[in-house]
Amino acid sequence: MALTPSNMLPLGTKAPEFSLIDTKDNKIKSLQDLKGKTGTLVMFICNHCPFVIHVNKELVRLTIDYKSKGINCIAISSNDVINYPQDGPDQMKQHAKDNHYPFPYLYDETQDIAKAYDAACTPDFFLFNSDLNLVYTGQLDGSRPGNEVPVTGEDLRSAIDGLVNNSPINQNQKPSMGCNIKWK
Description:
By secondary structure, the chain is α+β, with helices and mostly antiparallel strands. The chain contains five helices and ten strands.
C-alpha cells in the first residue's frame, strides 16, 4: 500500500463522460444517466483499500442524506484486477451488497475513466454542479485509519451543503489520501 494524495483536478473542469458497467445489476450506465439534478459526486473507490473500508459507512450515510436534495453519488473502481483480483466485478457486486451501497458501483476495466478524471487514490472525490463543472475535489474529512479522528465527512459535506444551498464553497480544498490506484 502506497499512501497517495489526490491530484486535485482544477475547479471548473467539466466532468469527463463515461459509460461503464454497474456491477450491481450488470447494466451499462453513463454519466448522463446517473447525474443528479443539483450535483453529482464521483468517487473512485475499491474493495480492499483500508482507507475506503475506513469510510464506507459514511459514504453510505452521505449518499442517503443528500439524495433527496438532488445529489447523486457514483462509485467507480479502476484497479488492475489481474494483480488485485479482490477488486474484480464479481467481488465488487458482493462488496456493494455487503456494505449496502445505495449508489452504482461501476467498473472501469480500461482505466480510461480514472485517467480522464486524473484520479490517483482510493478514495478520491469529485463533486460537480448541475452543469457538471467541478466545484470540489479533495478529502472526505481528516480521518484516516489509525489517526483517532472520527469519520464525519465534514469537508465533503460542507462542499455539498454549499452546492445545495447555493452558497460559497471553500476554495481551500485539502487532497484526499489513500491507496494508489493499482495501474496496469
